[in-house]
Amino acid sequence: MKKIIAIASAAVLGLGVAACDSAAENNAEEQAEAVGDAQEEAIDAAEDAGQITDEQADAAEEASENQEDAAEDAADQMDSGTPE
Predict the structure, then answer these.
(1) How many domains, the chain?
(2) Which of 69, 71, 40 is nearest to 57 (CA)?
(3) What is the C-alpha separation between 37 and 79, in angstroms, rounded?
(4) Which of the four pLDDT bands, split at 50, 70 and 90, describes residue 80?
(5) H-type alpha helices, 1-84
(6) CA 84 – CA 76 distance, rounded (Å)
(7) Please, which of 6, 18, 29, 51 could form a disulfide with 46 given CB 3.0 to 4.6 Å?
(8) By residue range, what is the domain housing residue 48?
(9) Cα 11 to Cα 52: distance, rounded to the nearest angstrom
C-alpha cells in the first residue's frame, strides 16, 4: 500500500515540475485527480480484501487526499509564477 502511494506521489510531483502553462496546469490537475482516484480504488480494494483495517484505510485515504490537494495547489501556481 505504501508503495502505491509513494509511486503515485512521485508521479504527481513530477508533473508539477514539468508543466509550465495553462494547458499543462490543467493536465497536471487532471493527472493529480486521476492518481488520487487510483489510490482510493487501491485503498478500497485492500480494505475489502482484509489487507488493512478501516482505520488504516481512513488514514491512507486522508494522506492520498492531502497529496492530491498539494499537487493541485502546485498546478495552480504554474501560471502565477509564485511559490506557495
Answers:
(1) 1
(2) 40
(3) 25
(4) low
(5) 2-18, 22-48, 54-80
(6) 9
(7) 51
(8) 35-75
(9) 24
- Whether 60 contacts 42, CB under 8 Å: no
What is the radius of gyration, based on Cα positions, of the chain? 14
DSSP 51: S
Q: Determine, yes or no, domain membership for 26.
A: no
Look at residue 7 in the predicted model and tell me its pLDDT: 62
Nearest to 34 by CA among 77, 2, 75: 75
Grid cell, residue 66, equals 492531502
Asked, for residue 82, whether it belongs to a domain, the answer is: no
Q: Does residue 66 contact residue 5 with C-beta atoms inside 8 Å?
A: no
For range 26-39, the mean pLDDT? 91
Contact 74/29 with Cβ under 8 angstroms? no
Is residue 63 situated within a structural domain? yes
**Distance (Å, whole) CA 64 – CA 4:** 10
